[in-house]
């Protein structure tokens, strides 16, 4: 090629760095990760990443499909700095909330990221059952995880996900985007270039329990009872050996040493006729759980030409979870079409339908209806098979087999009779029109909808501990969320300046109702209908409607494609605020400088350097019907009851100010990419509920008060450690930390704490000025000046404090993740680790199993003479000095006291962990094979999730959280269900 005809190729690497390369030079692929990379920003606007003054991380669909999660969001865990997927560990549907950069509000409902699908926000609220996680002795029900909006999105239909972390990035979404946004773009078939492509994605996976508590099987049921000879003994019911010791849930009985006792006989449904071998049944908890299975098949058809692109997709997933008789079926259908009606007018339509159906989902929490409750109370000497008949002989559907305690329901009764069903129909979709008015001006009109129609049922049989005559309940949940947008956009170039400006508006209207029908007591056992109720309660929900009207504008200016400036402004008018405060305005500004271009620093070793900064102020409204007094429907048809909330007609919007700055680097021919970001969020005038005097006739009132500050640091590193023609090794790593501080609280508290929430009546999330969101308070031990535990000299039990103290914080000091991928010809091996440092969680299960002697650490002291133990510590003398504790007490009393439920300190543990989050081995067959099969692509893969974990947390999973009605509360384990370890096989075929 002659020199004078040589061309200059301008390759935009990663959407970040421009490199001039002579045409005859060979562009090595190992220097280019993507060309002209764009990201989806607020309102679905696509931008080059180099132009953004804030962080926007993109996850491609391949990453979501590597390990085939039932809930796609869990595939993001550990892969994005500052992002946390919070679940309650409450069953197969796994409702999730996504948090970005920690909590910004004392109102937990306002700390979650907004989910946006194809530019339309998704309502991800959760409807609860109305019950708390701690229900023991309350004669109430428990929470059930019926899933939320995130569950309805099919990962097979997702093209990419862009994470907009700060409120500057999501400011154009108004109050809903105050916690950042997850921008989901679904597949459309636009890249098929006239060819029809059929794709099949099929997988099967198998679940087992990842981690078990350390159950002890050396001692059996009992409470250190002795026979007439002074020996420890056991007797189911009174016998010749002594009094009944078989009705307790404690395992402080005799050691398993080959002796014989009168025990339970399942054939007699009572005491055995002769003494039986005293032995442990080591599979009597683990044996209840099964290998869970999930089978999924997706088929899609897509094609495009210069005027039209379309895609349709069908997916069927069947899950049978690890707990017997639980699981769900899910059907997804998706359709999208984009058509160019003329040179100026384009239309796009997307519709997604989800149907989720289950005959039974597990209840979660600490009460009889939860299988976790049974696992806590099951004794080492009890064979699981003794429960299998479920019903006593001749008393089917009337009286269950639960021979050891009337408080513990039969596990098979829980699995096969206490059914929690759901039938959900969920539709999302949007229609958008784009019209090019002039060369430089166009308009977009978009209308999006979200419809949810859901029937939930709960069945409780006769003789269940909390419903002796049974119960049947129906919940009818209906949601409609409509979003209508119009956006005018003008683009032009003025010399070396590129300019674009947009202006538009949005109307959002939401309707939500939940009607509740309860049949308390069943006239005929086993018949679950409302007319079969002994007494019926009908709760018709009052309207729960909301409308927000918005106007917004944005402008972008760039100079020589090196310096960028973004300005946005939005004004909202919310129906949930009073007329005088209903309108609120908030702006944002963001800028970025491509320093490597400005100062001409680019070279083979140093490729790119970007400086970015942003500032924003975002408003936040509140829930409907808090301005004036609204009466609630009562349990009696046709009557109402006075509300417990004292309304506030003068509410103001909560305002959040965000500042963010950072830098991006790429070096060594773009083989190493490094990003660092620092941020600060200040949230003022928070809309919170505080207690009020009962004399007012109300229990709480809603006010504006308090300020919370978040500061944090995030780092990401993406690199190709090795890349050549046949082999590559890529590493992606991230690290993030967040520090939270409460700067002010309502004046009404006069320096006292504000209790934001509590779980089980023992763990309190208290807010103090100078403290942090997530601070956990409760009762603990008392210590002498030299740090020894103080005991009472009279009874040998621990001294009881009169004041609660801070036990720890539910959130870690930092989180990190690292992903590795190796490619050799057609073989790809990838695996991902992530973890966190510090953070604390209270465990109700640990308290109760320790109190009952079920865990291995309670073996300490078992061989002491007489079953006595002396607590390690001191007693306080009358003169104020301390001396060693010498008072012996029964082992059972020691463990029941030292680890009592109210002692949050001894039942709270460090939640540091490292997990092998996922792994995959895939083989993509060569073109020689696919050509012979007349297909275009064939990949076979083995994958796994949660394959290994290191942690000192003693229960199932350190990522503990509690589903408390509709709230997922981190830092508390309250009857947690086991976490699954998953392995599976996947087949991808394209025709």
TrEMBL record:
GO terms for biological process: siderophore transmembrane transport. The keyword Zinc does not apply. It holds the Pfam family TonB_dep_Rec_b-barrel. Gene3D superfamilies: TonB-dependent receptor, beta-barrel domain, TonB-dependent receptor, plug domain. It is found in: Cell outer membrane. GO terms for cellular component: cell outer membrane. Residues 421-795 form the TonB-dependent receptor-like beta-barrel domain. Keywords: Cell outer membrane, Membrane, Receptor, Signal, TonB box, Transmembrane, Transmembrane beta strand, Transport. It is a multi-pass membrane protein. It comes from the Bacteria. SUPFAM superfamilies: Porins. One of its GO terms (molecular function) is siderophore uptake transmembrane transporter activity. InterPro entries: Beta-barrel_TonB (IPR000531), Beta-barrel_TonB_sf (IPR036942), Plug_dom (IPR012910), Plug_dom_sf (IPR037066), TonB-dep_OMP_SusC/RagA (IPR023996), TonB-dep_OMP_SusC/RagA_CS (IPR023997), TonB-dep_rcpt-like (IPR039426). Residues 55-181 form the TonB-dependent receptor plug domain. Residues 1-23 form the signal peptide. Belongs to the TonB-dependent receptor family. PANTHER family: HEMOGLOBIN AND HEMOGLOBIN-HAPTOGLOBIN-BINDING PROTEIN 1-RELATED, TONB-DEPENDENT OUTER MEMBRANE RECEPTOR. This is TonB-linked outer membrane protein, SusC/RagA family. It comes from Chryseobacterium taichungense.
